[in-house]
Design brief:
heterodimer, A: 419 residues, ABC transporter involved in vitamin B12 uptake, BtuC, two-stranded antiparallel sheet, globular, B: 311 residues, two-stranded antiparallel ribbon, 15 helices, 74% helix
C-alpha cells in the first residue's frame, strides 16, 4: 500500500507544480513554452504507449496528432459559426474522437505485424497522409493552413480563454488528466499484456492472447491520446498547417521520447520538457540547433539507451542504500573531461557553421557563449581541437574507473544488506 | 500519344533503375543485419555532393569514379564504428541510430553546402541530344545514366551469382555462424557489404545529381520511396526490389505525364463522391501513389510481391 500512497503523493505534487508554475515563471515566453510543454508531454507519453510499452516503433505518430488537430480546428470554426453550446475545454474530446477514428482505420492496416515491418508501414502511412495534405486544400488549408479562433466559442463559467494564462491552465488540466489515465493504463492487466507482447510475443500467444489484437488496442489508445495533444495544439496556436502531420513532427516525438527514456513512465515527460525547452531557447542562440539535436539523439542511442530517466533510475538502489555519495568524487572528476569534450564539440560546430555559412556576409567574427573570436585565425580552432581531443582522451581514461567506483558502491550496499 | 508513351517509358525505366541502384544495397544490408538503413538515401545525397565538389575542382569523370569510393569508405566507417557498437542494444536501437544519422547528415550537408540547390551540371562531353523522336529530343546524359545503371545491375548480378565473393556473401546472409566456422571474418564481410551498398547509393547520387536537383532535401524526398520499393518488392528479395523499382518508376513518371483527373477518367458524377480528390489532376496526386501502392500491397499481400519471409 506504501507504493500506492507514494504514487498518489507524486500526482498531488505534480498537480501542485502545474498550478504554481505560472507564478514562478511568469514571463510571456515562459508561459508559451510551458503551454507547449504540456501538449508535448501528452504527445510523448502517447507515443511511449507504442514504443516503450508495446515495443512498436512508429515513424508516423504525427498523423494522429495532426489529423486530430485539424479536426479540432474545423470543429471550433463550426461551433463558433453555428453558436453551438460546446465550451472550449470540451474540444479535446473531439480531438480524442478524431484520434480514435483514425487510429482504428490506420491501426487495422498497420498493426497486423510488429517490428521492422510495422515501422515501415507507419512511415508509409505517415508519408501518405503528408502527401495528401498537399493535395486536399479544403481540409488541410494548403500552404497557410487552417486558422481558428478560440475566443469565439461559448464562454466556460465566464472564461473566454483569450489570455495565454487561461489556455495554460486548460492545457495543464488536460495534461494532468492524461498523465493519470496513461499511468493507470500501465497498471491494468491490459498494460501488462502490452509489455508481454513487447517482450515475448510467442508466450503471449500461448497464454491465449492475440498479439495482433493487443497491438491494435494499444495503437488505438495511443492515437486517442495523441488526438488530445493535437487538439490542444490547435487551441494553443489557433492554427494548424500541414507540417503537423509531417515526418518532422513524427521525428520530434520520437526524439523527445527516446532521449527522455522509453523504459520509464516519467521518461517521456522529462524528454518533452527538456527538448521543448532546448528547441525554443537554442533556436535563438545558434542556427545549427538541428545538428545538435541529431548528435544528442545518436549519443543517447549509442551510449545511454535507457535515456535520461533510465540513467537516473540506475542510481535508485544506491540512493536507497545511502551510498550515492561514493560516486560523487568520480562523477565530479569525469565531468571535467566530459565538459571539455562538449565545449570543444560546440566550438568546432559553431566555428565551422559560421565560416561555411555566414562568413560570406557577416565577416569572420563570431561569438560563442558571449566570447567573441575570429573564425579566420587559428587560435579558436586550435583551442577547440585541444578541448575536443583532450576531453575525449580524458574521458576514455576515466571511463573504467567510473565502472570500478560503481561496482564498489554496489558491493558495499549488498554487504550491508546481507547481515 | 505514342511520343508520350515512348518517352514516359524511357524516363520511367531510368528512374526505376536509379531506385534499384539504391534499393539493391538497402535490400542486401537488410538481409544481412535485419535492419533497414534509414540513412541509405543520405549516402545517395553525399554521393551527389561529393561528385559536385570533385566536378567543380577537377572534372566530372574523376568525380564519377572517386565519389562513390569515398561514399563507400564513409559507409564502411559508419558500420564499423557506429552501427556495430549499437548492435548489442537490438534492432530498434540500430534503426534509431540510422534515423539519427540521416538527420545529422542532412544538417551537415546544410552546413557545408548551404540550403539552396548547388549548380551540379551535366559534363560538356555528354551534353548533346541523343536522338529525336517526332518533335521531342532526348538528352544523351539520360542514356548515359541508363547505361550506368544497367552496367551496375549486370555487375552486381555477376558478382553475387558467379563469383566466390558472392558465394561467401550469400552464405553469410543466411548462415553467418557456419561461414564464420569456415574461417571467414563475417563482421568484415558485413562491413564490406555495407560499404559497397553505400557506394552504390553514392554512384546513383553522382549520376542523378546533374539530372535532378542536388539539394539538402534530396535524401528526405527519396528515402521514403526507397522504403516503399523494398517493402513492395518483398523485404530481402533482390528480384522483388528490381521489379518494384521499375514499377514505381513507371507509375510515377506516367502519373506526372498524364494530365487527367479522376473526374475526366470515370465521369464527373462518380468522381464527385471523392470530392476534391476527384477533381485534382493525376499529376498532383502522383506523390501519393507509391504510398497508396504500399498500403494496398500490405493489405492484400503482406510479404510483398516476391517476399518469402513473414518477418
Amino acid at each position: 500500500m506504501m507504493g500506492g500512497f507514494r504514487i498518489l503523493l507524486a500526482f498531488v505534487a505534480l498537480a501542485a507544480g502545474l498550478v504554481i508554475a505560472p507564478y514562478v515563471f511568469s514571463s510571456g515566453v515562459a508561459l508559451t513554452m510551458m503551454s507547449l510543454m504540456g501538449v508535448m508531454i501528452i504527445f510523448a507519453l502517447s507515443y511511449n504507449i507504442l514504443l516503450g510499452q508495446t515495443g512498436l516503433l512508429s515513424f508516423g505518430h504525427a498523423v494522429y496528432y495532426g489529423l486530430a488537430g485539424f479536426c479540432a480546428a474545423h470543429a471550433m470554426n463550426l461551433i463558433a459559426a453555428n453558436k453551438l453550446p460546446i465550451p472550449l475545454p470540451a474540444v479535446p474530446l473531439i480531438g480524442a474522437a478524431a484520434g480514435l477514428f483514425f487510429g482504428v482505420i490506420f491501426g487495422a492496416v498497420s498493426t497486423r505485424r510488429a517490428g521492422t515491418v510495422f515501422a515501415m508501414i507507419s512511415l508509409g502511412l505517415g508519408e501518405l497522409v503528408a502527401a495528401f495534405a498537399l493535395v486536399l486544400h479544403t481540409f488541410f488549408g494548403g500552404e497557410e493552413g487552417i486558422a481558428t479562433n478560440r475566443v469565439k466559442l461559448a464562454p466556460f463559467f465566464g472564461y473566454k480563454f483569450g489570455p495565454q494564462i487561461q489556455v495554460y491552465y486548460l492545457i495543464a488540466f488536460w495534461c494532468l488528466v492524461c498523465i493519470i489515465l496513461m499511468y493507470a493504463l500501465t497498471r491494468t492487466p491490459f498494460g501488462r499484456m502490452c509489455n508481454a507482447v513487447r517482450d515475448n510475443p510467442e508466450r503471449a500467444e500461448f497464454i491465449g492472447y492475440s498479439t495482433q489484437r493487443v497491438r491494435f488496442q494499444a495503437f488505438v489508445l495511443s492515437a486517442v491520446f495523441a488526438g488530445i495533444a493535437g487538439s490542444l495544439a490547435a487551441i494553443n496556436f489557433e492554427l494548424m498547417n500541414s507540417q503537423a502531420v509531417g515526418a518532422a513532427t513524427s521525428g520530434q516525438v520520437l526524439l523527445m521520447t527516446f532521449v527522455g527514456g522509453i523504459g520509464n513512465f516519467a521518461g517521456p515527460i522529462i524528454g518533452a520538457v527538456l527538448i521543448t525547452f532546448l528547441q525554443i531557447s537554442l533556436s535563438d542562440v545558434t542556427k545549427a540547433w538541428m545538428l545538435y539535436f541529431g548528435l544528442l539523439f545518436i549519443l543517447v542511442v549509442m551510449y545511454v539507451p535507457g535515456g535520461i530517466a533510465g540513467w537516473l533510475a540506475l542510481h535508485r538502489p544506491l540512493l536507497r542504500g545511502g551510498r550515492i555519495f561514493k560516486l560523487v568524487p568520480i562523477y565530479a572528476l569525469t565531468a571535467i573531461p566530459a565538459a571539455a569534450l562538449v565545449f570543444g564539440c560546440i566550438l568546432l560546430i559553431e566555428l565551422a557553421h559560421h565560416m561555411l555559412v555566414e562568413a560570406h556576409t557577416d565577416g569572420p567574427m563570431l561569438s560563442v557563449f558571449r566570447v567573441s573570436m575570429n573564425g579566420a585565425s587559428i587560435g579558436p580552432w586550435l583551442s577547440a581541437l585541444v578541448l575536443f581531443f583532450g576531453g575525449a582522451i580524458g574521458l576514455r581514461a576515466l571511463w573504467p574507473r567510473v565502472g570500478d567506483a560503481w561496482a564498489i558502491a554496489m558491493n558495499d550496499k549488498s554487504e550491508e544488506a546481507a547481515p | 500519344m505514342l511520343e508520350l508513351i515512348t518517352f514516359s517509358t524511357l524516363n520511367g525505366v531510368l528512374y526505376g533503375m536509379l531506385l534499384f541502384m539504391m534499393a539493391s544495397g538497402l535490400t542486401l544490408i537488410f538481409s544481412m543485419m535485419g535492419v533497414l538503413n534509414f540513412a541509405h538515401a543520405s549516402f545517395y545525397m553525399i554521393g551527389a555532393y561529393f561528385g559536385f565538389e570533385i566536378a567543380r575542382r577537377i572534372g566530372f569523370w574523376p568525380g564519377f569514379f572517386v565519389a562513390p569510393l569515398l561514399v563507400g569508405v564513409v559507409g564502411g566507417l559508419i558500420e564499423r564504428y557506429g552501427l556495430r557498437q549499437v548492435h548489442r542494444f537490438g534492432h530498434v536501437a540500430e534503426l534509431l541510430f540510422t534515423f539519427g544519422l540521416a538527420f545529422v547528415i542532412e544538417e551537415l550537408v546544410n552546413m557545408i553546402w548551404g540550403r539552396l540547390p548547388v549548380d551540379y551540371r551535366v559534363p560538356p562531353s555528354l551534353d548533346f541530344v541523343a536522338f529525336r523522336l517526332f518533335d521531342t529530343t532526348y538528352p544523351a546524359y539520360r542514356i548515359f545514366m541508363l547505361a550506368t545503371a544497367v552496367a551496375m545491375f549486370v555487375f552486381l548480378l555477376i558478382v553475387l551469382k558467379r563469383t566466390r565473393v558472392g558465394l561467401i556473401i550469400q552464405a553469410a546472409l543466411t548462415h553467418p555462424n557456419m561461414v564464420a566456422m569456415l574461417g571467414h571474418n563475417v563482421p568484415r564481410v558485413f562491413m564490406m557489404v555495407f560499404g559497397v551498398g553505400a557506394g552504390l547509393a553514392g554512384l546513383a547520387g553522382v549520376i542523378a545529381g546533374p539530372a535532378l536537383v542536388t539539394q539538402p532535401s534530396m535524401a528526405a524526398l527519396l528515402g521514403p520511396i526507397l522504403f516503399v520499393v523494398i517493402v513492395v518488392g518483398g523485404l530481402g528479395s533482390l528480384g522483388g526490389a528490381f521489379v518494384a523499382s521499375l514499377l514505381i518508376g513507371l507509375i510515377q513518371t506516367f502519373a506526372v505525364a498524364i494530365n487527367v483527373s479522376l473526374a475526366d477518367a470515370i465521369g464527373p458524377s462518380a468522381a464527385s463522391l471523392l470530392g476534391e480528390l476527384g477533381r485534382a489532376p493525376l499529376a498532383q496526386i502522383a506523390p501519393v501513389l507509391p504510398y497508396l501502392l504500399l498500403v494496398l500491397v500490405l493489405i492484400f499481400r503482406p510479404r510483398g510481391l516476391f517476399g518469402t519471409r513473414e518477418s
